[in-house]
# Entry
Amino acid sequence: MTIIAVVIVYNEEQLLPGCLESVHERVDRMVVVDGAYEHFPHEVPWSTDATREIAWCYGAEWVPCPLDVDGAPRAWHTQVEKRTAYLVGEEGDWYLHVDADERLVGELPAMEDGQHYAFQVHSRNLHLGWAPRLWQHRGRMRYEGAHNALWSDEQLVHLEGAVRIPWEQCHLDHLSHLRNVQRQLEKQAFLPGRIERERAYRQLHGI
# Structure
């Protein structure tokens, strides 16, 4: 069994070390996917800080931003496209999705074929939410329509039906408040537009 930790980044030198430190001893591979989105403020589509070097220092595999038809680097069209790029494993492998501003606390469960698993995500405001973040590569796996609409075996990997991991065993700490003020403002401006663009798909599938 291979467990692959996957992280999507863009100029995350401040937060990425803590993220990778929290997962690297618990997984077999780490994959970091770089690049901005078309609708996210950016001057160039690739990370210009030390994000790539940090990923390499932890032994992570690096997926750069894509190329346009002329061979020049471009921004990812959507989060759907970017997240699909980290589906690099083979059928039967397990994926653990962790954001750069999250920390994995505790030990992963003993995974069973055919299941997917949800973690409690703890934010600074003490908000606790559940998110499916650990799943097995099986069937024709891909993202469609919305950034969190992952399909496997022709079924949506959804919170409904996920095995919920007890807080005391394993959970995620969400540290978005540690981003610099400019990045927080940029992300706040990006999120409503993303939700609007994905709205119809989310409503159709109850995401």
About this structure: The mean pLDDT is 92. Residues 181-205 form the longest helix (25 residues).
